[in-house]
Hints:
The structure is a homodimer. Chain A is of the alpha/beta class. In chain A, strands 13-14-15-16-17-18-19-20 form an eight-stranded mixed β-sheet, with helices on both faces. A six-stranded mixed β-sheet of chain A has the order 1-2-4-7-9-12, with helices on both faces.
Amino acid sequence: xxxxxxxxxxxxxxxxxxxxxxxxxxxxxxxxxxxxxxxxxxxxxxxxxxxxxxxxxxxxxxxxxxxxxxxxxxxxxxxxxxxxxxxxxxxxxxxxxxxxxxxxxxxxxxxxxxxxxxxxxxxxxxxxxxxxxxxxxxxxxxxxxxxxxxxxxxxxxxxxxxxxxxxxxxxxxxxxxxxxxxxxxxxxxxxxxxxxxxxxxxxxxxxxxxxxxxxxxxxxxxxxxxxxxxxxxxxxxxxxxxxxxxxxxxxxxxxxxxxxxxxxxxxxxxxxxxxxxxxxxxxxxxxxxxxxxxxxxxxxxxxxxxxxxxxxxxxxxxxxxxxxxxxxxxxxxxxxxxxxxxxxxxxxxxxxxxxxxxxxxxxxxxxxxxxxxxxxxxxxxxxxxxxxxxxxxxxxxxxxxxxxxxxxxxxxxxxxxxxxxxxxxxxxxxxxxxxxxxxxxxxxxxxxxxxxxxxxxxxxxxxxxxxxxxxxxxxxxxxxxxxxxxxxxxxxxxxxxxxxxxxxxxxxxxxxxxxxxxxxxxxxxxxxxxxxxxxxxxxxxxxxxxxxxxxxx
Amino acid sequence: xxxxxxxxxxxxxxxxxxxxxxxxxxxxxxxxxxxxxxxxxxxxxxxxxxxxxxxxxxxxxxxxxxxxxxxxxxxxxxxxxxxxxxxxxxxxxxxxxxxxxxxxxxxxxxxxxxxxxxxxxxxxxxxxxxxxxxxxxxxxxxxxxxxxxxxxxxxxxxxxxxxxxxxxxxxxxxxxxxxxxxxxxxxxxxxxxxxxxxxxxxxxxxxxxxxxxxxxxxxxxxxxxxxxxxxxxxxxxxxxxxxxxxxxxxxxxxxxxxxxxxxxxxxxxxxxxxxxxxxxxxxxxxxxxxxxxxxxxxxxxxxxxxxxxxxxxxxxxxxxxxxxxxxxxxxxxxxxxxxxxxxxxxxxxxxxxxxxxxxxxxxxxxxxxxxxxxxxxxxxxxxxxxxxxxxxxxxxxxxxxxxxxxxxxxxxxxxxxxxxxxxxxxxxxxxxxxxxxxxxxxxxxxxxxxxxxxxxxxxxxxxxxxxxxxxxxxxxxxxxxxxxxxxxxxxxxxxxxxxxxxxxxxxxxxxxxxxxxxxxxxxxxxxxxxxxxxxxxxxxxxxxxxxxxxxxx
Lengths: 553, 553
């Protein structure tokens, strides 16, 4: 699987999803094209999915937020007869490299989380209307919705058959959501996860697997009713006009570098690293959200967000050997902050809210990116507000101190904004500053008093905002040594270490999914019982069962 | 490594640890015998350790609690010159099977946790007095202590060099404790974990890696002072006499079964399962803790605890192919409850407290055992109080309903005691009943009203205490089918599923160590970069570095 995976798509290209807009309700039909797999070698039968199907779904969810402010309820359903969704495609999983499997699961997990975020952050509720078999990743799609409705017939059932059938976990949040979101009793969860055929009818309701069981004859009617009820409770505007997410301005060069309008991705294959430089805004901030809205997807804070998001996803799936991501910024910090301030001062405007919430998701995506992350605060940079947040997302940071010979750029400073104290919580539900100063909560209070104040190196260091400050004499050598050292470590050890150090403090359902559940799934994805030649994934569909080594670990 | 590992030892057999008792202070010296490895093929140089060293340590810690009520402070130190401890032995890790590595780490983690438990539960504080190099698992020993003192000289340093040196994680709680217990800033943690040579002197103190830095010349004196200060704050009795932990009454038979005085371990190799039957007490409960104390280690509640603990450890390390543990009890429930009640009513007696806290640790050990766990509540059983707790520890449970033909034993019932609501919290800090009814906290309140009431099958099932109740007609078949089914699943998938389903709800430092950290470490332990022929563990000591595949996952 060496094809370059593109995360950009739009409705004109969809092969797997269909949407019928009905005022404040969007009916989202899963209708996977069997022949539309991202790679060769498998057919997407029974509404099973691969990464390509999920890239479309992520695009759908994003467009609901930005292009359709009027949509208050999304009803997810199947366009196929007798099957809702069979989950991730097994032949795809059987043929995929370990790293692809892991990153595929991570992306699908992030996309599932956006269903829940849509309700919490934007008042847009996902209902899952299940008819037919809803198994594995299919039921995990349902679990991520806010309300699950099941028709009461002889064939419609929900199931997590991964363990008995495939020797892997329901790894897209399934195990965590049944116990932590739906609060199923753990012994019943054990039974449920051992049943290939799943559970239907009243038992599904009694075991908390679905919210409502509906006679088949009334199913569509009751689903419509519920959709309207949820819409009534929504805070989304009824009269707003959406913002079209137009295609990104993006150029790939031969060496793998990518340049967007405000984000530059410079690949250095020799040293196995990539530098992402974010350019601050060229123009002053809009005077109002109306003006921002008129510029639409070209407005800087939305445009740059989409570019950065695309860059991160591209690197994750297509550039596995670039183990270190270096973040830089260049631009006028005051102008940059003015752009963020417009959004922060207009949070009750639906579009300002959407852009800020999108930034929250992007920063979480960066936290979860299994590359070493470092930020270099150079002269002329604009690490302020949301861009300062990058400094608290990375594993470590370096900052220029005092003047550098021949460097006429403005002496660099870090500037905090109110957003750093509330706007972009991590998946552990703390801000990045709270996480950083877990042992010194007073420091967070001190820092609140510094909002808006440019903090040059000595100050930033004393306040604990930066790992190292270096002057002209040491800068180049120290950073080179660090990068060389980092490139000499085992990538696996780095991935595992970073997954631990980045998320201290409390855990949430989200951190549990990406921490405990994912780590165990990744372990299983290495075990011969699942992925070996006689393992369950290879044996699937051949008529023989996986041959297992019965030793426990 | 097919040798049977014995977890029973006593001071007369110690090869690696030496203790000097000094009234309320115990000086514990690590003095590993290089030739005393548990297996062939490595030497335990530089105070490095293997499972054998840790089995002794676990025994030391346990005896401090029971045999030495007068010990209020334990000072852990090295008896070697210039080295505190070099951590887990690398050659041992390089040669060990995956399952041994995983279970070795689990046991060492459990043993580290007992340091912290000794302070919280028993007022016994561990001080770590570090002189010399304290690296990897050595520093993780220190991290588990309540107070770390470092001498200020040119060679004494603390380090977590696993990632740069060995391409594995500091997996015995290290990554979690630096961020969550010591609350080190996460970017500094990233730096620290990348430094092979570690950190010494003031920087170690500034980075929160140690609690106190002491000039070399005053080291011993200040350590003694601190030990006395901690002892002053302790609630442990000064005048109590300890209880000697005498050798267990234990018989192995040829098929691998083990019988203890009150615990029977019946191995069924054909069906890859083992049945642990606990016999209730033969005699009435003691009238007082004085009488209990006179009987010492033979007192039922302590004797049976030690037998069960030994059985679990034996199965974990020596019987990897027995994938299912079946728990049964037989005995008089009233008499059984009277034995627990004596302890519950005497919690301010140091020995009652120690026995109850030991039960807490054993139940946690069962939760963390990577075997499928099932309980069968048969007629004549005594699942009451602490034994009822087993029902909430297992993955699922079955209970006999109504009379069984030809079975004259007393109709079975489950009886809750006050202990089920507070005495034995899981590692997530909830009781097992709170965990079970995470979605129905009212049920826990309802159950409190049932304390002392024998709940027969219909009642127990209605209250959610049991997974399945079966009558004479279905019992045998249903259980046979379940067991056959369980034996047909991939052991890895079961391990990973159980590690997720058993710990819903909140996370603590403990669950993070056993969940997130351990799961990632287990993943790393499967990766060629660590354990492959050219990986770091095999290359260690050969003069060449590990050869890594640089792709990120």
